Structure prediction request, 430 residues.
Amino acid sequence: MSSATNTPQRDLYDVIVVGASFAGLSFASVAAARGLRTLVLERDPIVGGVVRTTGILFSDVFDIIEVPQRYLMNAVRRLRIRASGTETVAEFDSAAYRFYMADVTGLLQWMAEQAQGHGAEVICGAMFHEATRESDGVMRVTYLASAAEAGTAARAVELRARMLIGADGARSRVAQALDLDRNERMLAGAEWLVEGVEIERDTFYLVMDAQLAPGYCVWLAPHAEMAAFGVAGRQREFKPNESLRAARTMFSDVTDLSQMRVVERKGGNIPVGGRLKRVYRDDARGRALLLGDAAGLCGAATGGGIYPALISGRLAAQAVAQELLNGAPSAMKVYLRTLPQAGRLGPYLQIEDWIRFALDHMTSNADLQALVSIMASPEGNRVVRAALLETPIMGMDKAFFGMARGMFLQHPRLYGSAFRAAWQRLALRA
Ligand SMILES: Cc1cc2nc3c(=O)[nH]c(=O)nc-3n(C[C@H](O)[C@H](O)[C@H](O)COP(=O)(O)OP(=O)(O)OC[C@H]3O[C@@H](n4cnc5c(N)ncnc54)[C@H](O)[C@@H]3O)c2cc1C
Prediction:
């Protein structure tokens, strides 16, 4: 994958896509294959050059794209969860592999090659800056091209497009520039790739701690020959890198992290406020659509956003092609209305929102210890194993709510804590 293609001669595109990651590249591939003149702008110097994700793929992803085997590193079928301050461990395993650690750089570069193979152009080192709609209805899009030489200023480049696609992540500049909805609630995450750590190659290890990882957890996961040591939690309530430094002893029951060598550090934001409402506009201000994280399409509890990004990208491209090439005026409305049904995205995001609500109300390690002991019980183990390891997203439905509610109702201590929190929230609003 080259770092950049030549700037095109003709400056009018059907679509300009901002962001060459899961949402943008899946959109670009289908859009170009459907005959749209497609350009992708990516601020990083090469596609996949800066990895901001752990890269865990649910097996459901393979229903959407055929990921070549060479980009799948570790296959995982066991989860081990503990809360700080207790030795109780909830462990879940399944005979079938459920998660895969992806080589994210390789996978994104392969996706870019697929899109280019269909005719899309990709320009790297191109930071989207601004877009306005002209009197002829076309969008004028400005990006800043990275300076060719150190010490020289970035160059502003103007192009034109019939539609702008914001696939530029949780803090979308396109959403801001086009005055569309923006993510407000986020988790902050940091991850170190480390050497010198011995762990099972098919197991994820998670520790919940209300201070070091408020609302989420610290994790240790196999990553090819290395390990990924990461943390996420509610933004502004903790410092991710400080938490990681403090969390070195948390996995002492499974391995020794005292000698680990940090090879790479990464981090980013995870939108957890749910699906955004106003993600599309076609009026005097502009014609633009948000996808993936930029549209709030991310699992609010697990932070799993690759699957929604891929689905929204591919489906939106079909609708945009219908609208721009066939003049089907209702195609975008149909896309926005039917997206939740695609790949059971709606129920998946709803279940994740519900778990996020519960996690946000477990504010002490005592709450988390109670949660882990429920998960370690035979009934809890059955529910969590079914949810996380055995049920494909396509199979998720409201039965999960009933099953999970039944589990919580059997454990009034935890139910009481969540209930009290909800009551306090209502009382504050009143
Ligand atoms: C620490 C961490 C761990 C995660 N782990 C997982 C996981 O294991 N599994 C999972 O499913 N999800 C995970 N997620 C979430 C997942 O990474 C995202 O949901 C997913 O990457 C969203 O894809 P996207 O294409 O919408 O946006 P992104 O992957 O965020 O891509 C946005 C792209 O836009 C580019 N861009 C941004 N601004 C501009 C601009 N102004 N101009 C040009 N380009 C721009 C960026 O450089 C980037 O390439 C994790 C997130 C974090 C932060």
In short: The first strand starts at residue 12 and ends at 18. Residues 18-24, 41-44, 52-56, 127-128, 167-169, 173, 189, 191, 267-270, 292-294, 298, 303-307, 309 surround flavin-adenine dinucleotide (CB under 6 Å).
